[in-house]
Write a structure and sequence with these properties.
The chain is of the alpha/beta class and about 190 residues long. The protein is built from seven helices and eight strands; from the N terminus they run αββααβαβββαβαβα. The strands form two sheets. A six-stranded mixed beta sheet has the order 5-4-3-6-7-8, with helices on both faces. Helix 3 packs across helix 4.
Length: about 190
């Protein structure tokens, strides 16, 4: 399992804490689960200094992946809404095209599920803000694959370790978290 050998990223933990991205109380998550804490990555993704540091870390991870080569054509993908600012920053940092994936197809205009373009066989690296069950990103990946794209991994800022890794493994996708919720919640 990916998380067994990983080292928490203290720089990212510090950034998220300084932005007050961790809230305590009673919250309902996108997955429908209840939680005593909430990781509000939007606090970091709307802070230019935090966003720049996070996008640099994610870009470094993408560059370190064995399949990546400097001149390789990849597309940076983000699911609306939380993944979009981060994916945009990574796209700018790496000078790679951006693909925004809507949670559902529009019923007006072009009726597209995507903002940006990809073709048959294009590789999309998915970026997420927080994963819990992995349902949103898994659904997006399945749609991209159905439309001919390739997705091999997802880089997430915070994994809540509540099933996302297993959900993505079940479709052959590697989850790469910068930090886990347990890393973030340590004193």
């Amino acid at each position: 399992m990916l998380n067994e050998s990983r080292i928490p990223d203290d720089d990212i933990i510090s950034i998220l804490k300084k932005c007050n991205a961790v809230k305590f109380g009673d919250f309902v998550l996108a997955s429908g689960k209840r939680s005593s804490y909430y990781v509000d990555i939007k606090k970091a993704s709307t802070n230019p200094i935090a966003l720049k540091k996070i996008s640099k870390k994610i870009s470094d991870i993408i560059k370190a992946e064995s399949e990546y080569k400097e001149n390789k054509d990849i597309i940076i993908g983000g699911v609306e809404l939380g993944g979009v600012p981060i994916a945009t920053a990574v796209s700018l940092n790496m000078e790679k095209p951006l693909l925004i994936i809507r949670k559902s197809e529009k019923d007006y205009g072009t009726k597209s599920r995507y903002i940006g373009e990809f073709g048959e066989g294009d590789e999309i690296v998915m970026i997420e803000d927080v994963t819990t069950s992995g349902g949103s990103v898994k659904k997006a990946i399945e749609q991209i694959r159905e439309d001919g794209g390739i997705v091999n991994y997802v880089v997430v800022i915070v994994d809540r370790c509540s099933g996302a890794n297993e959900a993505l493994e079940s479709i052959g996708v590697k989850l790469i978290p910068l930090v886990t919720a347990s890393d973030l919640l340590k004193d």
